[in-house]
Amino acid sequence: MSKREKRLWRVHTEGLAFLIGTAVLFAMSLAYLYIQFENKLPFWIWLVCTSVLLGLCINFYRFPKRKQQSTDPRAVLAATDGKIVAIERVYEPEVLKCECIQVSTFMTIFNVHAQWFPIAGKVTYQAHRDGHFMSANLPKSSEENERSSVVVQNKEGQLVLVRQIAGAVARRIITYAEVGETYETDEPLGFIKFGSRVDLFLPLDSEIKVELNQVVWGNETLIAVLPEIKSVK
Fold it and tell me: Of 141, 142, 196, 206, which one is the catalytic site residue?
């Protein structure tokens, strides 16, 4: 856990039911072992195992409270925690239908799996598409895996596409964004369970502020600065 996350974090609401059910199941199994067996060694072994497993589950569903400080409307913040695995010029055929700069962040099961809005603005598009479940660190996963796409338009009319991508283990993508609603960067965009990837598609002239293999923090790390819109006189 990073020093940032030690300030204040709580369990994400997406994990409450799972964690409560798991804790109850573990408690029942421990009670059974304690009552049924005179030799308490199996009980103590299972107690250690269940404590570790429950701790890992709580760690996975942690939801740190973060407050971004940027006041620049053109600043694009990281949408999630993880490592930058791609920075490249691509043609985005599904939604924007133009060339963009794609910045991809890969999450392991040890990262925070919540997503935040990378820019403040109005959601103009949201769609979920079924697909495959290949490893999320592969380039093809952006186009072929199950995914959810959200387009946010800032006050200057610039568009940023956020794509949540399922991985080989992840089987559920949750997206809170609703078309027509306006959101701030501090607001949660969604949640992906058990390791996956988030792609950002930015205007070509954006100034990229991260490098390959850099570790980033959702709602904190500056990913890019959108190009300045020149006024027409």
Answer: 196
Per-residue DSSP letter, 130: -
Whole-prediction pTM value? 0.78
Contact 189, 181 (CB under 8 A): no
Collapsing DSSP to helix, strand or coil, 180 comes out as coil
Burial of 185 (0-12, 13-18, 19+ CB in 10 A): buried
Q: How confident is the model at residue 233 (pLDDT cuts 50, 70, 90)?
A: very low
Across the chain, mean pLDDT equals: 83
For residue range 84-105, what is the model confidence (pLDDT) as tens digits?
999 999 999 989 999 999 999 9
Contacts of 161 by beta carbon, 8 Å cutoff, 6+ apart: 92, 95, 96, 100, 149, 150, 151, 199, 200, 201
CB atoms within 10 A of CB 158: 20
Is the model's pLDDT at 145 over the cut of 90? Answer: no
- Per the annotation, the verdict on 141 as an active-site residue is no
How far apart (Å, rounded) are the C-alpha atoms in residues 1 and 180?
A: 36
| Non-local CB neighbours of 8 within 8 Å, separated by 6+ positions | 64, 65
Could you tell me the end-to-end alpha-carbon distance of the chain, in angstroms, rounded to an integer? 51
Residue of 119, 111, 105 lying closest to 177 (CA atoms): 119
